[in-house]
Design a protein that fits this description.
Shape: elongated
Strand content: under 5%
Number of strands: 0
Number of domains: 1
Helix content: over 70%
């Protein structure tokens, strides 16, 4: 527990470092560029298609009539963009994890290692290509899980559990692997992930619930739709900061655990005051024969 809490506070303090703040803008710029291009190409057509689908729905028309009767006719007009935003949120989260993992985590590992673990040997248990491949596979699995569980999100308790759980699993898989890829050997990484798996998953759950907070920006109704050009980059940057914090938390925890693991192995190899092994006694004749007697000239 002490290692978990100390790593948490160190990650919080590192997030205030100017270099970390500047690095957090790199994924933001790339994500916003891609989002702007996709919105320019597909947003209007996607919204029109969704509006046509909703107009053909008996349930939606009944709901719209009821809303108009209670004095809320404008809610139907915001239904389509809100559905698109909610549907695209998992893709934004997964993309942010991917960008932070590939663009920021290697630099963060080097910064933390130089400051706290300058003597920790790098055994290069996984290459950058392997790390990217691991992140892509994990992200694809998280998207599949999101699509399969999306119909269950309409149940109020499950919408508060399933998305954070999926993001927690993705964070645990990606951040712990990246934190140990450069310094730990493959065997050390497997040992640490198996030993600290409950703690690492708990860290992922905390990050998963933190990752749900930027979505609250879109809970302002029509105002959120009107302020979308401002809220979109703000929400993406908040997602980036959450996963930057997660990366730093996993880096501090995993490198500290790796250092303790190696210290434990070294202590097992060299134990002070260990009794010497008994020496087998030689026969007296062998001892005499082994002694070189100088000859006189």
């Amino acid at each position: 527990m002490g290692l978990l809490l100390s790593s948490f506070w160190r990650a919080v303090l590192y997030c205030l470092h100017p270099k970390v703040i500047l690095l957090s803008f790199l994924p933001l710029l790339l994500a916003m560029g891609a989002a702007g291009l996709l919105a320019y190409l597909f947003w209007q057509s996607a919204q029109e298609t969704l509006v046509s689908f909703l107009d053909a729905s008996v349930f939606v028309n009944s709901l719209a009539a009821w809303l108009a009767a209670v004095g809320l006719p404008a809610l139907k007009t915001m239904l389509a963009p809100l559905i698109l935003i909610v549907g695209l949120t998992p893709l934004v989260v997964v993309s942010t994890v991917l960008l932070v993992s590939t663009m920021m985590t290697p630099a963060l590992v080097r910064m933390v290692a130089a400051r706290r673990f300058p003597t920790l040997e790098r055994r290069h248990g996984a290459s950058f290509v392997a790390s990217v491949g691991w992140t892509l596979i994990s992200s694809a699995l998280a998207l599949v899980a999101t699509i399969l569980t999306a119909p269950m999100w309409i149940v109020p308790p499950l919408v508060l559990i399933l998305p954070p759980a999926i993001w927690a699993w993705l964070t645990y898989r990606v951040m712990s692997f990246d934190a140990l890829a450069d310094h730990a050997s493959s065997a050390e990484r497997q040992t640490l992930l198996a030993t600290h798996k409950p703690t690492l998953i708990a860290m992922g759950l905390v990050v998963g619930f933190l990752g749900a907070t930027p979505s609250l920006l879109w809970s302002m109704g029509l105002m959120a739709i009107a302020m979308a050009p401002l809220l979109l980059p703000l929400s993406v940057w908040l997602y980036t900061l959450v996963f930057v914090f997660a990366s730093l938390w996993y880096i501090h925890f995993c490198l500290s655990a790796l250092q303790m693991l190696r210290a434990q192995h070294e202590a097992e190899v060299f134990v002070p005051n260990r009794p010497l092994a008994p020496v087998e006694a030689l026969p007296l004749g062998d001892i005499v024969d082994a002694i070189e007697v100088p000859t006189t000239k």
